[in-house]
Amino acid sequence: MIVVLKKNADAQQYGELRRWLIAQGVSIQENIGSFQTVLGLIGDTASIDSDLIEALEIVESVKRVQEPYKKANRKFHPDDSIIDVSGVKIGGGHFAVMAGPCSIECEDQIVEVAKQVKAAGANLLRGGAFKPRTSPYAYQGMREEGIDLLLKAREATGLPIVTEIMDAAHLDAFRDVDMLQVGARNMQNFELLKVLGHTDKPILLKRGLSSTIQEWLMSAEYIMAGGNENVVLCERGIRTFETATRNTLDLSAIPVLREKSHLPIIIDPSHATGVARYVKPMAYAAVAGGADGLMIEVHPNPAKAMSDGPQCLTPAKFEEVMQGVAKLRSALA
Length: 333
Ligand code: PEP
Ligand code: MN
Hints:
Layout: E1 2-5, H1 11-23, E2 27-32, E3 37-42, H2 50-54, E4 59-63, E5 83-85, E6 88-90, E7 96-100, H3 107-120, E8 124-126, H4 144-157, E9 161-164, E10 179-182, H5 190-197, E11 203-206, H6 213-225, E12 231-235, H7 253-260, E13 265-267, H8 269-273, H9 276-288, E14 293-297, H10 315-332
Manganese (II) ion binds near residues 102, 297 and 308.
């Protein structure tokens, strides 16, 4: 249930309303927006008489929220959320680009690529240390050692780092990481989501391979329900009948999410297409469609990459994409 307060609502009456609502057994999420104060009620609101609340002098309107996601719902939080990743803001007009290799392979590779993506204008460095691979015989990543190298690359460039966590038992190894990625394969690993909900780390939540937008928002809700509201959504393509691309990039997720949620939306054209030469056009399409940022895989030598080489851009190609993105953004501004 949503309770919208009138502007300049009397503080004493507001205090009374809050106490009464809490006594009904619901918790209140208060959002003081630029235009109005919205109270999101979470819990069993079925027995609460909405007419009674609506009749109060300080209340403008009361709405029941049908969707099962509450904290991720735009009705609970009318303004766009802005997520701060160690000083880099994402959402609400702040555009962020996270770039780097699929897998961290050695110190030279990650430090070099970090400098190059930074020079091209990226504001966050990505790199996989724990890799979710379809085959147990494929490269599994450098694990803890990879995180150490990522930290060195951050030290060399100042770029905050994003890397994937697959198991809550590994959380301690991620203590110095700026943003934790939950990959497509773990989007519905609810135990992992619950643990992340109790951290204060920003979370990049990728869409599951075959997940609906509602399922994806419910996964965001798992994290937010634990108290961690620093969630950024990442569309990375979904499984369809099409085989010409690795996945099918669902760009319509941008306007749909924009309407349903206040969380920022990042588009990953690398995993969505699986083909380096398709990354630029889809990155441009994502910008035109209103994304809050991009995730792009960049490798100094894609042909030699330990994972996802075919979709990795060279640093020079990445720079070209970044220049086009900047032009497109200023044309749209
Ligand atoms: C990745 O970012 O390297 C990755 C494995 O992504 P996804 O979970 O989207 O497949
Ligand atoms: Mn990858």
